[in-house]
Design brief:
Shape: rod-shaped
Strand content: under 5%
Structural class: mainly alpha
Helix content: over 70%
Order of helices and strands: HHH
Number of domains: 1
Number of helices: 3
Largest sheet: none
Length: about 70
């Protein structure tokens, strides 16, 4: 079987998602971020979205290897 692009994409988005989620948790009480984003912790939510996308890519890659 050839090179599956979903593995590095999943690893990249998972890593960025983890970093952004940790940063969102670390800055959750900061007044600067609350004012600019209308009270939504956008770093946390986008970090979680990136984590989910990375997990889906890794799951698809893992599932393709089993078949």
């Amino acid at each position: 079987m050839g090179f599956d692009i979903r593995l590095p994409i999943g690893l990249m988005f998972g890593t960025f998602g983890m970093l952004l989620t940790v940063y969102g948790f670390a800055t959750s009480g900061s007044e600067d971020y609350v004012v600019h984003s209308l009270g939504i912790n956008i770093n946390l939510w986008w970090g979680l979205a990136l984590l989910v996308f990375g997990a889906v890519m890794l799951a698809l890659s893992w599932n393709a290897r089993r078949s």
